[in-house]
What we know:
By secondary structure, this protein is α/β, with parallel strands linked by helices. The protein has 2 domains: 32-57 and 73-218, 3-Layer(aba) Sandwich (Rossmann fold); 230-283, Alpha-Beta Plaits. It has 10 helices and 14 strands. It has helices spanning 45-52, 74-79, 96-106, 111-124, 140-152, 170-185, 197-203, 221-228, 240-252, 286-294; strands at residues 7-16, 19-29, 34-38, 60-65, 68-70, 81-84, 158-162, 189-194, 206-211, 214-219, 232-237, 257-260, 263-266, 279-283. It has a 6-stranded mixed beta sheet with strand order 6-7-8-3-9-10, with helices on both faces. It has a 4-stranded antiparallel beta sheet with strand order 2-1-4-5. Helix 3 (96-106) packs parallel to helix 5 (140-152) and helix 8 (221-228) packs across helix 10 (286-294). The radius of gyration is 21 Å and the shape is globular. The mean pLDDT is 92.
Amino acid sequence: MSTVPAIALRGVVKAYGALRAVDGLDLDVPEGSCVGLLGPNGAGKSTTMKLLTAQAIADAGELRVLGFELPGESKQARAEMGVVPQLDNLDTTLSVRDNLRVFARLYRVPKAERDAAVTRALELATLTDRADARADELSGGMRRRLLIARALVHRPRLVLMDEPTVGLDPQVRQELWALIARLRSEGTSILMSTHYIDEAERLADSVTIMSHGKAVSVGAPGALIAEHAGREVLEVYGPPVRLAEVEAQARTAGHATRRTGTSVAIMKAEHVDGDYGEGHRRAANLEDVFVHLTGEEIA
């Protein structure tokens, strides 16, 4: 395995007028790892993806992808990466197989190897039995699998996935999780932006949590949970006035909290003493960390 990181960003800035969509971002994706990019709407995730594919050009900072410097060597970098867009942009007039053939040719897979490349991509995405169906005849989950297969047809070293399971039902998400886990086990480098915190907690080796264009916390999911939320969270229920009292009581005692609809979650509950009223203890999770750090509800 190469020692060159799949992605290395240092101090990257991208502004649109007075708005800094990305503001001094540092981001690392080690070779062969899966990194989850988390953040509320407007945090800068999609802009970061555009910078990595040279659809947008940074105003400042350094960007290296697979050892290539962007934007000057963006063509070389793109040739060795696959991109799974958030929006479905399949050619619906073509069959599943022909969608893959087109991209195999665009990525300059040698002609003698294209059929094998397409067959492998179909197998990876479990679409072999639908290879001759038109793309517009596929279900939403199958279309998403085809987008992933298309990104993999040229055996990329790095795959960028922008909200890969957005809008899909839980069963289909589970299927795609299995596919992403397989890629990860095979050593493919993956950067995955997502709103689904459980997705990142399950699949990513590490996560970068973004807010207002900056990375506010970076680390393995388990390490971030231990650092910010501890082993347990105490959720206390009640009307808004009571919840405000609980928040004030917890913070006076030095405990971080997060509001969750009709409850207040008190972090690191294994260290909590005192009477906070009706509630229950549960295991802490990455969503607790996300909301605590960004101050945002999940979109």
